[in-house]
Design a protein that fits this description.
Length: 359
């Protein structure tokens, strides 16, 4: 198969040089204007962009002016070309963003002080960036339609009164998890993010992975526990041997938040329902065992690890090898499971080895 001259030229073009706000930036071919700006630390507001999702261009807040191009293209969907000159802060761009924000906020419930996303809301951040406060939107909020809050899911709450139809939740459910539990429904002023048949989220196909909640730029989707951690600790999810990397938000002696580590090679920031919601539940649970227990006189009593391991070692000596079985765990790594079966076969002399891969 022969390669066309255009294809050969594109293959040779490994990088492009683009000028954004008088700053020259060299980026790989195929990079969008928004990604190029972010790589140079140039801020362009956006609500619908997510690095894990395909470019969508729905919010229209990331518009820019590009020399030689008509109109105001969205920077998240416009790939750079060599020699492109971009302006992100012209008067026309600012006017367009303010108009767009006015349309977004016209039906948005503005109870920011009592919102769980207060100080963590992208909508709030962009409004402040554009110099727009509550008084700016009061003249637009002539009438508000209040939709019933969906709190049927035990992990998170859906408040469509705060939804701005950026569709990040819909795209995450489709592109990342492949579940398609929600989609954009209805038209015009009635447009909303809905489940099939507009039923509560608990009655849908939702797997409660939380990918939609982590990407929601407003308070439309929030976790039930919204306490802010005082510090974060890097850790590994204990639920299976995949090794998903995560950050545990700690406050006092409790885990109050869990988020995926974007640098984790096995999960790239994604978490399943067990990893996102199951860790804090069992670690913080009041009935969780925190010390070994030994039964004395028919009653379990607290013991040290030395006592517990010593008792197990002594008990194992009293059994024949054919009376001993070894069960490993799917929560352990492959290396730990290998050592466990080796211990059973070599040290204990038993081939009765099993592995529970059922989570």
């Amino acid at each position: 198969m022969t390669t066309s001259p255009i294809s050969r030229q594109e293959t040779k073009q490994k990088t492009c040089t683009v000028t954004i706000d008088a700053v020259q930036i060299k980026v790989p071919a195929g990079t969008t204007v928004l990604e190029a700006a972010r790589s140079a630390g140039i801020y362009i507001p956006t609500l619908c962009y997510d690095p894990d999702l395909e470019p969508y261009g729905a919010c229209c807040l990331c518009v820019v002016e590009i020399e030689g191009m008509r109109g105001l293209p969205t920077s998240c969907t416009t790939p750079v070309t060599d020699g492109m000159v971009v302006h992100t802060e012209t008067e026309l761009v600012r006017l367009s963003r303010i108009t767009t924000m006015e349309l977004i906020m016209a039906n948005h419930h503005g109870n920011c002080l009592t919102c769980a996303k207060n100080q963590q809301c992208e909508l709030q951040k962009i409004a402040a960036y554009l110099g727009m406060g509550d008084e700016h939107f009061e003249r637009l909020r002539k009438s508000q339609v209040t939709v019933e809050i969906d709190d049927t899911n035990p992990a998170f709450i859906r408040d469509m009164n705060k939804c701005i139809l950026c569709a990040k939740c819909v795209r995450a459910c489709h592109e990342i998890t492949g579940v398609d539990a929600i989609d954009l429904a209805f038209r015009g002023n009635s447009a909303t993010v809905s489940t099939f048949g507009d039923r509560p989220i608990l009655d849908s196909r939702c797997e409660s992975c939380g990918e939609c909640v982590t990407r929601c730029p407003t308070g439309a989707l929030v976790f039930r526990d919204t306490r802010q951690p005082t510090k974060e600790v890097e850790s590994t999810c204990p639920y299976c041997a995949v090794g998903c990397q995560m950050y545990l938000g700690v406050r006092g002696n409790e885990i109050v938040s869990v988020r995926g580590n974007q640098e984790g090679p096995s999960n790239e920031g994604h978490l399943c329902v067990k990893g996102r919601f199951g860790v804090a539940d069992f670690v913080n649970h009041e009935t969780r065992l925190r010390v070994p227990l030994i039964k004395r006189n028919g009653k379990f009593e607290e013991a040290t690890w030395e006592e517990a391991l010593g008792l197990v070692a002594e008990k194992l000596k009293t059994y024949k090898s054919e009376e001993i079985g070894v069960i490993s765990s799917a929560r352990s790594t492959n290396e730990a499971n290998y050592i466990m079966q080796k211990f059973g076969r070599v040290a204990l002399g038993t081939n009765s080895v099993d592995h529970c891969a059922r989570l």
